[in-house]
Write a structure and sequence with these properties.
By secondary structure, this protein is of the alpha+beta class. The chain is built from 16 helices and 15 strands.
């Protein structure tokens, strides 16, 4: 059935309201508010018909029943929405008149008809319209139902008036209670409406933000995957769906993580399932720039992956976000660069070997050579050997290998030799080069490798002091470490450049704008040599105020 009154067959209950009261139209609310009194009046008529049929002959009682029927019809028939809102209050006020007629017409057969005034009292006080007037009427209207007939009949005594006060006082109490509850409900409803409005605004903003986020994620050329704590996908953008299809084995359109084709940097060895980026992220790991290869054959792509864990407000792991960046072109370019460096280095070996061979032949004729030619030849041999070592280092760095052979060495003599060899260049650059060393300082190091580090640092200090200045090479010991510092008063470098200075082929911005020669390999090789000795190399620099490199190596 449809409408307000339905029958629930399963439970045998009458369901009066299928919707919340405030969801009905004003006409429906007026009719529903009148209906309890109308139903009670109908039951009263039935009782009178069964047990007191003579009361139906009383015109006042019949008027009561007729007015109740008429008021119910008016509730449905009058277009209350088109009238001023307070107009519907005329119905409960007329109910008091109707009840007064019913009380006078039926009090000989039925007692307590005046209690029906509770219904219009509740209606008035629950409406929330003119609350003070409603409370006043909740006392005066029931009082009038009782007192007016007494005054009309003229047999009024003080005792009669006092006895009739109970009902008005009772309805006043009911009116106060209903008013308080109504006021509370109105406030609650207002709060709920405000919260509902706020929630709607928040939902609208949330949908707008979600749309913006989806647009950004679908636009970027990075694969983005979000997973929950159990490893289930929460979000996957367009680029990551393409990566997923790329890594899928042939014939498997929806593989799981363990079935994907994920390879190590050698492009052939599969990454173990527990070491794969998504599995590591699900285990709560944070990592950056983890290189893997996805797919197979000519379509294989190099991907760097980074992950950050998500945590809830309690700090509990709630999932992770993994970012996949395609770096295939960069990896291929680096490989091509390494191949080029390796090929050039191989080509350097032959002429360098010839130079060293002829210098050795000349030095073997030491007795026949003028004394003034011996030292230059020794410098040529020394620098040719260093250049040959540099070529070997380039090849070794490409293969990830750099071997040192430590032995007991007087490092002070290595420093003095490096400074002595660089004096001609320092004089040409108008640089005052000097060494500050003890008479002897022994350490267990590879003499050729450490000379290479010293030569490179001294050479850089002179080269990057184009306007002259001072270069000091100091040597000392601190605890179980020897410490060598190469300080200059040259051009210096910015903080940004200091963070990249040990990167292969890096040259600072201000150097690239000058004619100072170099390829940016010396410092990266020097750092590798020092670290191969178990030591560290650090720098302190200020743009325009010079640079100091500090080498610390265990004795």
């Amino acid at each position: 059935m449809s409408g307000n009154l339905t029958w629930d067959i399963a439970s045998g209950r009458i369901l009066f309201f299928r919707r919340a009261f405030h969801e009905y139209s004003l006409r429906g609310r007026v009719a529903l508010s009148q209906m309890p009194l109308s139903i009670t009046a109908g039951l009263t008529a039935a009782l009178v018909l069964l047990f007191f049929p003579e009361t139906l002959g009383n015109p006042l009682f019949l008027t009561f029943l007729a007015t109740q029927a008429l008021l119910l019809i008016l509730c449905f028939a009058v277009p209350w929405e088109r009238l001023p809102f307070e107009t519907f209050l005329v119905i409960p006020l007329l109910d008091f008149v109707s009840i007064a007629l019913g009380r006078e017409g039926g009090q000989e057969s039925l007692t307590g008809i005046s209690l029906l005034s509770v219904f219009p009292v509740i209606w008035l006080c629950a409406s929330g319209v003119y609350p003070r007037t409603a409370l006043l009427m909740s006392f005066l209207a029931p009082l009038g139902i009782i007192w007016v007939p007494l005054f009309i009949r003229g047999d009024v005594t003080g005792q009669d008036l006092a006895k009739s006060l109970l009902l008005p006082v009772m309805t006043l109490g009911i009116g106060v209670s209903v008013s308080v509850l109504t006021l509370s409900m109105v406030r609650q409803q207002r709060d709920l409406e405000e919260k509902d409005a706020q929630l709607r605004i928040a939902l609208k903003d949330s949908k707008r933000q979600e749309g913006l986020l989806n647009s950004v994620l679908e636009t970027v050329h990075l694969g983005v995957l979000a997973v929950d704590a159990d490893g289930n996908d929460i979000l996957m953008n367009r680029k990551q769906r393409a990566n997923h299809r790329l890594a899928a084995p042939a014939g498997n359109s929806d593989p799981n993580e363990s079935q994907l084709l994920v390879f190590q940097p050698d492009r052939t060895t599969e990454v173990p399932v527990e070491s794969r980026p998504v599995r590591r992220a699900v285990n709560g790991e944070n990592f950056t720039d983890n290189l893997v290869w996805l797919g197979s054959g000519s379509e294989q792509r190099a991907i760097t992956t980074s992950a950050r864990a998500m945590k809830d407000h309690d700090g509990t792991f709630a999932g992770s976000v993994i970012v996949f960046s395609d770096v295939t072109d960069l990896v291929n370019a680096l490989a091509a660069k390494d191949d080029f460096v390796a090929n050039v280095s191989h080509e350097f070996r032959t002429p360098l070997t010839s130079i060293l061979g002829y210098v050795e032949l000349l030095l073997d004729e030491g007795d026949e050579l003028p004394e003034s030619n011996v030292e230059p030849l020794q410098i040529i041999r020394r620098n040719a050997e260093r250049l040959l070592g540099l070529v070997s280092d380039l090849l070794a760095s490409r293969n990830g290998q750099l071997i040192v052979s430590p032995q007991a060495v007087d490092v002070a003599e290595l420093v003095r030799a490096s400074v002595s060899a660089a004096l001609p260049r320092a004089a040409e650059a108008n640089v005052d080069l000097r060494a500050d060393t003890p008479a002897r300082l022994d350490a267990h190091v590879d003499s050729a490798r450490m000379s290479q580090v010293l030569d490179n640092l001294v050479s850089n200090a002179i080269k990057y002091s184009p306007n002259g200045g001072d270069v000091v090479v100091s040597l000392g010991s601190e605890g179980n470490h020897l410490v060598c510092r190469v300080s200059d008063t040259g051009m210096g470098m910015s903080e940004k450049d200091q963070g990249e200075v040990f990167t292969k082929f890096f040259r600072t911005g201000n150097v690239r704008n000058t004619s100072i020669p170099g390829v940016g390999l010396g410092l990266s090789i020097s750092k590798a040599i020092v670290e191969a000795h178990g030591g560290t190399i650090q720098l302190r620099s200020a743009l325009g105020h010079g640079t100091t490199f500090t080498v610390r190596v265990p004795v």
